[in-house]
Design goal:
- With 517 residues, this protein is α/β, with parallel strands linked by helices.
- The protein has 2 domains: 245 residues, Aldehyde Dehydrogenase, Chain A, domain 1, CATH 3.40.605; 208 residues, Aldehyde Dehydrogenase, Chain A, domain 2 (3-Layer(aba) Sandwich), CATH 3.40.309.
- It is 36% helix and 21% strand.
- It has 15 helices and 23 strands.
- It has a 7-stranded mixed beta sheet, sandwiched between helices. Strands 11-10-9-12-13 form a 5-stranded parallel beta sheet, sandwiched between helices. Strands 6, 7, 8 and 23 form a 4-stranded antiparallel beta sheet that branches.
Length: 517
């Protein structure tokens, strides 16, 4: 894998290479170029037409069970190359083995979940949305809402941090709903997405036109949107806003689902039992260091009772001190580099801004020990900062440093904690650790309107609870406000972006027979 790999795009059911050198992809551990990708000269308009006419027709002619079988086959094809994909994740993403597995297994697990959902929906091609409604004096005159696939193509633009899982979570929902997919991964780490799609195409398991891949610059991708298409985007809030204002989006009314920046919060309640407190320390440490903190669900703000702040610094610092950072090829390394030089520059700028209104609680802003690397690379070592209060400062509630950096915010009471959490202006996930039922009952409704998901951990489930960074296909992934206002996954909910809700009215008994399919 030491040579530079040319990455092609998969369009109109064949691999196609763009002109010229295109974009360089790097190994963020060594700074070596490992791949190149170009989309120059590729006919994206033809790719859209092919996906709509060929792929769309094929999926709409299949039942949910048949579409689910496609997802199951995709999952198996990807899993069969798991070891190869883990190595690609290390080379192009700087992933440790554990981090690469987290991404790849998240992808195959999500595909398999939606495969099971398709099997449970059975031999139907449409879904009923609610019960029949009598709309006239006669009981025969009724209305029924139904859900059918939108007639266009689903354009998926994914972020760099989850090149495997990002493709799978969107594609699973779209394909099961009956829409073909054109996926555009973040270029910096697209080598893993490319290898994953290659595993699927080599297995020859999908009907023509169902899955397309664009590797490299997006160029004029959105210029080809038409009525009936859908866009789902994960990335920065600024880019999401640009997409929403794209002329073709405005002209066609294409829905745009956005998952953007998120200053996720963790709240430790007073009088948490020992098991709950231990889970809090465990999960905050994981969220700071897993994938080098490059997760949209990672904890950025940690709200702690002010009389516990020193205890938390000591215990969390001890955990962080045991996290070895360096070359992810080493067995003893638990955290690798950031994914690219651009991310490294952004993180350093963010840290400098945060230091203007916080103190260092643990770590070194200039960087700590990095194992197995003789200079270079995109490394940021874990850094724990401390603000004066839960509601003070501006940058700490506004600026997301996409790396292993979090800020402790001491609070005097639940009112101050809730106010501080809400200052994040909307997040993907908030996690609460506590055992006081009265306190839990008071804070959850005050925070729910600002979050797509709230994870509550108490002593009875502390040893088995999933942390906030584990995105489950059963539950909603998305969030309000600055998090983008979008929704993904959540079982059947994740399919609704790709389905048209239509009201059918007429002879009730006749409609029941016609729609029973």
């Amino acid at each position: 894998m030491s040579d530079i790999t040319p990455l092609s795009s998969y369009l109109e059911d064949r691999w196609q290479s763009g002109e010229g050198d295109g974009s360089a992809l790097y190994d963020p551990t060594s700074d070596a170029i490992v791949a190149r990708a170009s989309t120059k000269g590729l006919d994206l308009a033809a790719a859209f037409r092919h996906a709509r006419t060929v792929g769309g027709a094929a999926l709409r002619g299949m039942t949910f069970a048949e579409r689910g079988a496609l997802l199951k086959a995709m999952s198996k094809a990807i899993h069969a190359r798991r070891e190869e994909l883990i190595e690609v994740g290390r080379i192009n993403g700087g992933n440790t083995r554990g981090d690469a597995k987290f991404d790849i297994d998240g992808a195959t697990g999500t595909l398999m979940y939606y495969a099971g959902l398709g099997k449970s929906l059975g031999d139907k091609t449409l879904l009923l949305d609610g019960d029949p409604i009598t709309i006239g004096a006669s009981s025969r005159l009724q209305g029924q809402h139904i859900l059918t696939p939108k007639p266009g193509v689903a354009v998926h633009i994914n972020a760099f941090n989850f090149p495997a899982w990002g493709l799978a979570e969107k594609a699973a929902c779209a394909i099961l709903a009956g829409m073909p997919v054109i996926s555009k991964p973040g270029t910096a780490t697209a080598m893993l997405t490319w290898a994953m799609v290659k595993a699927v195409t080599d297995a020859d398991i999908l009907p023509a036109g169902v899955l397309s891949l664009v590797v490299g610059s997006a160029r004029d991708l959105l210029d080809h949107l038409e009525w009936g298409d859908v866009v789902a985007f994960t990335g920065s809030a600024d880019t999401g806003e640009m997409m929403r204002r794209h002329p073709r989006v405005l002209a066609t009314g294409v829905p745009v689902n956005v998952e953007a920046d998120s200053l996720n919060a963790t709240v430790l309640l007073p009088d948490a039992e020992d098991a709950t407190y231990d889970a809090f320390i465990r999960d905050v440490h994981r969220e700071m260091t897993q994938k080098a903190g490059q997760k949209c669900t990672a904890t950025r703000r940690i709200f702690v009772p002010e009389d516990m702040i020193d205890e938390v610094v000591e215990d969390l610092g001890e955990r962080l001190a045991g996290t070895k950072v360096g070359d992810p090829a080493r067995d003893d390394v638990r955290m690798g580099p950031l994914a690219s030089k651009a991310q490294l520059t952004s993180a350093r700028e963010g840290i400098a801004a945060l230091l203007g209104e916080t103190d260092v609680a643990w770590g070194d802003p200039a960087g700590g020990d990095v194992l197995g690397v003789d200079g270079g690379g995109c490394f940021v070592t874990p850094l724990l900062l401390r603000a004066e209060s839960a509601t003070g400062g501006d940058a700490v509630h506004r600026l997301e440093v996409f790396g292993p950096v979090s800020t402790l915010l001491p609070y005097a009471d639940l009112d101050e904690a809730a106010e501080g959490v809400r200052m994040g202006q909307g997040s993907l996930v908030c996690s609460i650790y506590g055992d006081d039922r009265k306190a839990l009952g008071a804070i959850i409704p005050r925070l729910a309107g600002w979050h797509g998901r709230i994870v509550v951990t108490d002593a009875k489930i502390a040893d088995k609870a999933y942390g906030p960074g584990m995105v489950m296909p059963h539950l909603l992934h998305g969030g309000p406000g600055r998090a983008g206002g979008g929704e993904e996954l959540g079982g059947l909910r994740g399919m609704k972006l790709y389905q048209q809700r239509t009201a059918i009215q007429g002879n009730g008994p006749l409609l029941a027979r016609l729609l029973d399919r």
